[in-house]
Write a structure and sequence with these properties.
By secondary structure, the chain is an alpha/beta fold. The protein has helices spanning about 15-25, 70-85, 110-115, 115-125, 135-140, and strands at about 10, 30-35, 40-45, 45-50, 65-70, 90, 95, 100-105. About 20% of the residues are buried.
Length: about 140
């Protein structure tokens, strides 16, 4: 079945390298097809296209991918994997990987935690002080 909408990620000659890297980070991922210009790949069943478009355009924080994590172990895995080898930590669960793509690594329960007016304010105050999110600290805020 063809995906009706999927992202195209513009790389400076490193689309295959990026696709291989992302497939190594996310379980149930694979390269679907490739040629010198385009790599089609899936991350956890979601289709992506990597384009070897050249140096004209760079990623920025206006677009990010959110990774909803079931527990701290998943947060640690994605955070450590995506900041490795040149990635950069940012604030509030945000990071950039070595290709410059922005990611938000967040606990799945964050929305539920934030929906409580009193507790949500304390959790948000704690979150604003973090780089990698810590579920226990958010729950205990």
């Amino acid at each position: 079945m063809t995906e009706p909408i999927y992202p195209c990620l513009w790389f400076d000659g490193k689309a295959k390298e990026a696709a291989d890297y992302y497939c190594s980070v996310f379980k149930n991922s694979k390269i679907i097809s490739e040629n010198p210009m385009v790599v089609i790949f899936e991350l956890n069943g979601k289709k992506f296209m990597g384009l070897n478009g050249g140096p004209m355009f760079k990623f920025n924080e206006a677009v990010s991918f959110v990774v909803s994590c079931k527990d701290q172990q998943e947060i640690d895995h994605y955070w450590n994997s995506l900041t490795a080898n040149g990635g950069q930590e940012s604030q509030c669960g945000w990071l950039k990987d070595k290709f410059g793509m922005s990611w938000q690594i967040v606990p799945a329960m964050l929305g539920q935690l934030m929906s409580d007016p009193e507790r949500g304010q304390r959790a948000m105050a704690a979150l604003m002080k973090m780089k990698k999110l810590d579920i226990e600290k958010l729950q205990n805020a």
